[in-house]
From TrEMBL:
<dbReference type="InterPro" id="IPR001412">
    <property type="entry name" value="aa-tRNA-synth_I_CS"/>
</dbReference>
<dbReference type="InterPro" id="IPR049437">
    <property type="entry name" value="tRNA-synt_1c_C2"/>
</dbReference>
<dbReference type="InterPro" id="IPR042559">
    <property type="entry name" value="Gln-tRNA-synth_Ib_RNA-bd_N_2"/>
</dbReference>
<dbReference type="InterPro" id="IPR020059">
    <property type="entry name" value="Glu/Gln-tRNA-synth_Ib_codon-bd"/>
</dbReference>
<dbReference type="Pfam" id="PF20974">
    <property type="entry name" value="tRNA-synt_1c_C2"/>
</dbReference>
<keyword id="KW-0648">Protein biosynthesis</keyword>
<dbReference type="Pfam" id="PF00749">
    <property type="entry name" value="tRNA-synt_1c"/>
</dbReference>
<dbReference type="GO" id="GO:0048608">
    <property type="term" value="P:reproductive structure development"/>
</dbReference>
<dbReference type="InterPro" id="IPR042558">
    <property type="entry name" value="Gln-tRNA-synth_Ib_RNA-bd_N_1"/>
</dbReference>
<dbReference type="InterPro" id="IPR011035">
    <property type="entry name" value="Ribosomal_bL25/Gln-tRNA_synth"/>
</dbReference>
<feature type="domain" description="tRNA synthetases class I (E and Q) anti-codon binding">
    <location>
        <begin position="696"/>
        <end position="773"/>
    </location>
</feature>
<dbReference type="GO" id="GO:0005524">
    <property type="term" value="F:ATP binding"/>
</dbReference>
<protein>
    <recommendedName>
        <fullName>glutamine--tRNA ligase</fullName>
        <ecNumber>6.1.1.18</ecNumber>
    </recommendedName>
</protein>
<feature type="domain" description="Glutamyl/glutaminyl-tRNA synthetase class Ib catalytic">
    <location>
        <begin position="268"/>
        <end position="573"/>
    </location>
</feature>
<dbReference type="Pfam" id="PF03950">
    <property type="entry name" value="tRNA-synt_1c_C"/>
</dbReference>
<feature type="domain" description="Glutamyl/glutaminyl-tRNA synthetase class Ib anti-codon binding">
    <location>
        <begin position="576"/>
        <end position="686"/>
    </location>
</feature>
<dbReference type="GO" id="GO:0004819">
    <property type="term" value="F:glutamine-tRNA ligase activity"/>
</dbReference>
Amino acid sequence: MVVNEESSGTPLELFLKIGLDERTARNTIANNKVTNNLTSVIHEAGVTEGCSRTIGNLLYTVATKYPANALIHRPTLLGYVVSSKVKTPAQLEAAFSFLSKTASESFELNEFEEACGVGIEVSVEVTERTVNEIFEQNKESILELRYRTNVGDLFGHVRKRLPWADPRIVKQLIDAKLFELLGERTAADNEKPSKQKKEKPAKVEDKKVADENPVLPSEEDLNPFLIFPNPEENFKVHTEIFFSDKSVLRCCNTKEMLDKHLKATGGKVFTRFPPEPNGYLHIGHAKAMFVSFGLAKERDGCCYLRYDDTNPEAEKKEYIDHIEEIVQWMGWKPFKITYTSDYFQDLYDLAVELIRRGHAYVDHQTPEEIKEYREKKMNSPWRDRPIAESLKLFDEMRRGMIEEGKATLRMKQDMQSDNFNMYDLIAYRIKFTPHPHSGDKWCVYPSYDYAHCIVDSLENITHSLCTLEFETRRASYYWLLHALGIYQPYVWEYSRLNVTNTVMSKRKLNLLVTKKYVDGWDDPRLMTLAGLRRRGVTSTAINAFIRGIGITRSDGSLIRLDRLEYHIREEFNKTASRTMVVLHPLKVVITNLESGSIMDLEAKKWPDAQNDDASAFYKVPFSNVVYIEHSDFRMKDSKDYYGLAPGKSVLLRLKKLFEFGFEISIKEVVLADDNETIIEIQAEYDASKKTKPKGVLHWVAEPSPGVDPLKVEVRLFDKLFNSENPVELDDWLADLNPQSKVVRSSAYAVPSLEKAAVGEKFQFERLGYFVVDKDSTPDKLVFNRTVTLRDSYGKGVK
C-alpha cells in the first residue's frame, strides 16, 4: 500500500494548523516516524488548512496508535473524526479495537458505529446522576481519604457505566462533587502521607528450607519462541518504508496472497538457515541455527538449509560440505537442502520483469563512480534510460556479450532516501567465473540484496530471521517484493552474538588462519564450531548457552566467555569420567615403602559411583615412586600454600578416591649439580599421624619397577586475545595472547588412559576437563583442555 502526499507547507506548519502547541509540534518533528505518520494522517483527513484543536489531538492519537494491520481502513476512521462522529478518546480507542480485529477485511458501517458509540449522546443529567451514584457507593472511603482519593478510579467507574460520556464533563462533575462533599482543602490534605517503615522479619535459624512455592520461570524463559507470530497473522503491516517524496510503503500481504501462501505451506512455519559457503561457521551461526531451526521445531514446522551461493569467487566445496556436517552435529535436521543457485533462472526472469515494470535499469558506472554518486545522493546518468534499452542490454549481459565490470543491473529505488540501503542497490553483476554448484551456465550473478528476499518468497518462508546489522536492509527487502507483487515473509532481526576475548568476522578469522596465527579453521582457540568441537565442547552445551542468552534485540552487548564455560562445566561434571594426569612431573620416592612393590587400586570414575558397579571404577597402580606436579612443591613454605614443602606434609589424593589416606612429608630434596634443578624428592609416609593436612595432591605412579608412566601430550588452551573486545583496537593482532596455547609434551597419565579414543572426554583431577585430540597416534595420546574446573579469567591462574 503506497500513500502519496503533496507538499502543503512544512511539517511544523501543518502540526500548528491542527492545533498542536508549539512544544508538542517541535518534539514530534524530532521523531521521523511519528512525523511521517502524522503528515500522512493530515493529508488523508483533508485538513491541511487546519482544524479544531479537539480534532487535531484525535488525529495525533491516530498517527501514534492506529493498528498497523488495518491501514486500509484509516481513511474511513478519519472521516468520522473530522465530521465529529468520533469525538472522544474513548470512541477512538473503541475504533482502534474494532479495526484491529477487522484488519484488512471489509466490515459493515453500522457494526463499526455501534462499536464506537457513534450517534450516542449522553446528557449532562444522566452523567451527573451516575457520578452521584458512584460517590454514594464509595462515600465512606472518600471521607476517609479525602483529597487523597484516587480520582482515576472514580473516573473508571463512571466510564464503565457510561463509556460514551464526555470525559471533560465527567471530570468537572467529579471535581464539583468532591468539593461539595469535602469542602476546601486543608493543610492536612496537602501533606504527603508518611512512609511507614517496613518491619524487619524476625530472625530465624540459619537453616535452609525448601520453598513450597518456588518461583517458576516465565513462559518466555521456557520457550523463547513465543515472541513470533503465527503464519496466518502475516497480513498485518509491521514495516513502513518512507520515501523522500513523502510517500509511504506499508508492507503487507493481501488476503488472496496470504491464502495462496497458507495453502502451499499447510499453515506451517517455514524458516531457513542461509549461510554463505565462504568460510567455516562460528558460534554466531550456532545462534542463527538455534533461532531458525528452533522456531521450526517448536512449531512443528520446517527449516531449509539454504546455501546463499551468489558469489562464485569466494565459495568452495570444502565449505559446503563443512556446513552440512556441522549443522547435523549441532543437532538440527534440515527439511530440505537448497541453494540460491537452484533459483538462478527464476531470479533472472523476475529481474526481466522488474525492468519491464520500470523498477530496474542497466548501469555502466564503475564501482568508484557508484560510491561517489551514492555519497552525493546523485542519480546515475543511465537511471532513466528506456526500458527496452535496459532489457536488450541485460540480455547481452546474460549472453556474455559485455565485459566484466562494464555493466550492472541496478534497482531503481530512492537515491534521496535517508536509508543508504535504498540507493539503487545492484541486482546483477557480470562474472566470468564457473560456479561451484551450477557450473558455467551463467556469467551474470544476482547480489545478496536482490536474491535473498526473492528466494525467501519463492520458498514460502513464513519467518525470515536475521541479525540486527541487516535491519536497514528491511526497506530494500520489502520494496523489491512489493515491486514484483509477490508474497512477503515476516522479517524479524535479533541481536548478534558477540563473545569476549575473540573475533568472529569471517575476514578476521580468515586472516588468522591464512597467516598461520592459529592452526587452521578448527584450532581449539577459535570460536568456530569446528574449533569448539575439537576443543571438546558439545553441541548440547552450545545450545544451552544460546538458549540461556535468549532471543532479544538488545544489540552491542558482549557475552562473557564465562557463560559458555558454565554450561560446559555443567554438562561435563555429569558426563566426563575422572582420572589423573600430571602435566609437569616431579619425581617423589617414598623411602619407607617397599621398593618394587606395586599395588593395583580401584579409583572411582564418578564421585557418586556405587561400590557394586564395576564399570564405575578403573585400575590405578601405586608404588613407592610417584610423580606430582612441579607446582605442588616449594623449597620455601608460606601460610597460604597447601602443597608439599620442607616441614609441611600433604595427603596424596587417595582418601576421596580409595577410602583411605596417605600422608607424606619430605625427607630430602635431591638437586642437580647447579644446586637449583630438582631431580627428585625423597619422602616418607606416616600412617600413625592423626591430623589431616590441608593439602591434597593428585599423582601418577610408576606402573612397574623402573618403568615410566604413560607419557601423553597435553595442550592447555586459553583465551585467544587478552582484551575482552579486541575488534575495538587499532592493532588487534598485537593483542593476541602469547599464552593462548601451552603444550606439555611430557605429561604422565595413569595406564587406564592408554586406550582412550579420539573425542573421549575426561576430568583430570584438580586440572580441568580434557578431550582426546585427533592428532593422537598409537604411540602418543594428545589431550586438549576444554575448560578449567573453575573460571580462571582475570585471576592469572593456569
